[in-house]
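I am hoping you can look over what I have pasted underneath with an eye to the fold:
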Amino acid sequence: MTRVLIQGAGIAGTALAHWLHRSGFHPTVVERADTLRAGGYKVDIRGAALTVVERMGVLGTLRELRTDVRGGSVVDARGRRVASMDADTFGGRTHGDAEVLRGDLTRVLHELTADRVEHRFGGRETVTALHDTGHGVEVTFASGTTETFDLVIGADGLRSPLRGLVFDGDPVRHLGHHVAIFSVPNHLGLDREELTYVGPGRTALVYSTAGQADAKAMFLWASDPRDRDPRDRAARQDVLAAAYAGEGWEVPTLLKAMDDAPDFYFDALAQVHLDGWSRGRVGLVGDAAYGASPASGQGTSLALVGAYILAGELARHGAGGFAAYEERMRGFVTRNQALGPANVKRMVLRTKGQVRMSMAMLSILGRLPGRDRMLSAMLAPIHRAATAIDLPDYPA
């Protein structure tokens, strides 16, 4: 039986473990965190990814766990709603797309293999060295132990430590913006609603989802790619506070909540661009291979589709499946990564003039004839990118 080591128990890693196990492989998943990450922000499952989760048998479960956000509004500095629309239009969803919390999706995927696939949590089980013996990959873990696997897959995120052991250079491309997300008290009393405030070079939003007593605050702002991100949380919070100093609406109140937030997340909006996603018997999947950034809205779908294709091609071709996986996925990845830079320009407006013009257009949008047709045209590029791949029906 082919032994496969997967580093990373996020969406890509857990989905890959399921498909490999179903195809007769013996996967082992290692994760530096002590447990699965619960909660998290909301993510979308679109297009081809819907077919993948349906084939996994969990689409119905995920629909039951939907965030059930019902509407979204853009507000001005006084909190007045400039424009409101249904949640799917506000979030760029169409054709049955599913929105769930990231932690719920990871948990559902993990439960598919929890009693059949070995999972090792904690920093002592992360990979520190790899050596291709010609017949397998000798892996050294942080604990000092070594094991040999037939294949090794990095599913460990945008700044994949495993990728750094095998691939040269830094493939992470900064998109000139940062993002921060954390839980906040629902002091606005939102009921499955999202509010977005836009200032020059910075956007802030807050939303509540079904079954959650608190809310999530998200901040997107223009930044200098040359600036080095601080490593510690306090310094990162200082960067966020400085970026929004003097901003109106509910921003000061939301920022006060970050000190007590158990889930403070801060990172550059960035993408991963590699000429190839494998080296010998070592491959990459999800953000580690082709991170598209949260601005694309397609990171989750790329992870799910990539895991499905990679497992299917490895089952067909063995280690040669890496090349077939990349051939099938490359065009799909390119189209979906292109959404990131385009979307962030619409999400974060650079000047006061752009903000004023956008607010004026939004305020009259609801009264324009053909509104639904215009909104449909705006969402069409997302749907085309999300469905820009033919999924093979791999045998179990």
Observations:
- DSSP finds 14 helices and 18 strands in the chain.
- The chain has two domains: 3-68+102-172+271-342, 173-270+347-381.
- The chain has a mean pLDDT of 92.
